[in-house]
Amino acid sequence: MNIASYCSVGSRRLLVGVLVTLLLAALAGCTIGGSPEATVSAFFSAINANNPEKAVDYVCGDIVIPQLPPNLLRNMNYKTLTNDGSTARVQVTGEIRATTGLFSGKKELDFQLVVLNNGGRWCIQRDSLQEFLKAIVSIK
Question: Does residue 134 contact residue 47 with C-beta atoms inside 8 Å?
């Protein structure tokens, strides 16, 4: 007997749909926990929304992220440079703009983040955030 004799037509369609989805995810190099680019994008979206509590969810290990002005980041782009399934490098480009009182400044961003696959969930290596933190401090 084969498996088709035990399954209804609806169950077979569901099973085929699940198998096709898993196959497409494997072919795309994705893990069930998302992708390195999606993780980096979600991190910076949380930063831009002034939600540091959410941003720390995307970082491996403990980190304290201060509250920053909303809409600090503009024209953000993310590109996966390497990904071997356990470690990835994501290029981050964009612009950081700050306006407080009479002070206004901007700085172009162009750095790489290391993103680790931690049990099927991608997270940003804490130490690789130093370039971003330097950019925040050195806005002119």
Answer: no
DSSP assignment, residue 19?
A: H
Q: What is the pTM of this model?
A: 0.72
DSSP states along 57-122? GGEES--------TT-EEEEEEEEEEE-SSEEEEEEEEEEEEEETTEEEEEEEEEEEEEEEETTEE
pLDDT in tens, 53-105: 999 999 999 998 888 888 889 999 999 999 999 999 999 999 998 776 656 78
Q: Are residues 68 and 95 in the same domain?
A: yes
Domain that holds residue 15: 1-30
User: Residue 62 half-sphere exposure, CB side, CA atoms within 13 Å?
Assistant: 0
